[in-house]
Design brief:
With 302 residues, this protein is of the alpha/beta class. The protein has one domain: Indigoidine synthase domain (Indigoidine synthase fold, 3-Layer(aba) Sandwich), CATH 3.40.1790.10. The chain contains 13 helices and 11 strands. It has helices spanning 9-17, 27-32, 37-51, 72-80, 89-97, 106-116, 133-136, 141-148, 164-173, 205-217, 238-254, 262-273, 277-301, and strands spanning 5-7, 21-24, 55-62, 65-68, 85-87, 102-104, 120-122, 152-155, 178-181, 200-202, 224-227. Strands 1, 2, 3, 4, 5, 6, 7, 8, 9, 10 and 11 form an 11-stranded mixed beta sheet that branches. The longest helix is centred in the C-terminal third of the chain and has 25 residues, at 277-301. The radius of gyration is 18 Å and the shape is globular. It starts with a strand and ends with a helix. It binds pseudouridine-5'-monophosphate and manganese (II) ion. Pseudouridine-5'-monophosphate binds at residues 25, 27-28, 31-32, 105-106, 124-125, 127, 140-142, 260, 263, 267, 282.
Length: 302
């Protein structure tokens, strides 16, 4: 098969040596954080992963290819570009075929990681069922992808801008294991608590690796969502976040923000309304997730 995959030199070396690799998404860089914090965070996360003897593979679409691992120059280009597409399953092929520059969401990163043979991927949080979805039908394609593609996604739960109970219901219906690391409660991204019980809990990376391998043995489709609570020192409490989120959602509704723009708009408004605290928190949780994903990638190799 002639796949349009372009591997960075370090990812190619890791594949040849059969050492663990952790995939990273790029929408968080282009649509989730402002410049230059976006590229600084991406570099820090990659360095942290390398420090633990694992290879990072940031995924993005450029020049008609799916890049598995970005050189520093490409990373900088992507982080500075203003007109990068936000790609999910629906538009991935169009972008590759037509030479567009695109960042991959959780859904698209899962597809690309799987094509490259990478099993673990770290992000901030996954998309989910938006509040008011009964009117807008706005449900992230990330949920459908988790049901389909055998990649472990490590995130800090789902953002409280979403309808978290409905998000967990859809994941259950679609057969996606939701495993929270080290606590009983499902975490809500900026906060450790959501008030919702996590469907499953694991206290070691070995349990996660075993569950992933057993899904394969049992021939069950799809991946797994590992919810990793933000460290206590970095969290913003749900009490503080609740009114901020309400305001951001109200503004999005009044301004008619819809479809792909909803998540980036809300993240940007919440960043402004919290005087940047949400970004500091976001960076800390991505770092924490990359660390766990790195340990899972190692456990899968042992
Ligand atoms: N969480 C963040 N920042 C982000 C995203 C999630 O903290 O930028 C991105 C991810 O790429 C996720 C996407 O896959 O938002 C979900 O977008 P949507 O709701 O349009 O499916
Ligand atoms: Mn959406």
């Amino acid at each position: 098969m002639n796949l349009p995959l372009s591997f960075s030199p370090e990812v190619m070396a890791a594949m040849a040596a059969d050492t663990p690799i952790v995939a990273l998404e790029s929408t968080i860089i282009t649509h989730g954080m402002p410049y230059p914090q976006n590229v600084e965070t991406a570099r820090m996360i990659e360095a942290d992963i390398r420090d633990q003897g694992v290879t990072p593979a940031t995924i993005a679409i450029m020049d008609g290819a799916i890049h598995i691992g970005l050189t520093d120059e490409r990373l900088e280009d992507l982080a500075q570009s203003k007109d990068v597409l936000k790609l999910s399953r629906a538009d991935l092929a169009f972008a590759v075929a037509n030479g567009k520059t695109g960042a991959t969401t959780v859904a698209a990163t899962m597809i690309c990681a799987h094509l490259a043979g990478i099993k673990v991927f770290a992000t901030g949080g996954i998309g989910g069922v938006h509040r008011g979805s009964e009117n807008t039908f706005d449900i992230s394609a990330d949920l459908e992808e988790l049901a389909k593609t055998p990649v472990i996604v490590v995130g800090a739960g789902a953002k409280a801008i979403l309808d978290l109970p409905k998000t967990l219901e859809i994941l259950e219906t679609r057969g996606v294991p939701v495993v929270t690391f080290g606590q009983d409660e499902f975490p809500a991204f900026w906060s450790r608590s959501s008030g919702l019980q996590s469907p499953l809990r694991a206290d070691s990376v070995e349990e996660i690796a075993a569950a992933y391998n057993m899904r394969d043995t049992l021939d069950l489709d799809g991946g797994m969502f590992v919810a990793n609570p933000i460290p206590l020192a970095d969290e913003i409490t749900s009490e503080y976040m609740a009114p901020v989120i309400e305001q951001a959602i109200a503004e999005a509704t009044i301004q008619g923000v819809a479809a792909k723009s909803v998540t980036p708009f809300l993240l940007q408004r919440i960043f402004e309304l919290t005087d940047g605290r949400s970004l500091t928190c976001n960076i800390a949780l991505v770092k924490n997730n990359a660390q766990l994903a790195t340990q899972i990638a190692k456990a899968l190799k042992s």
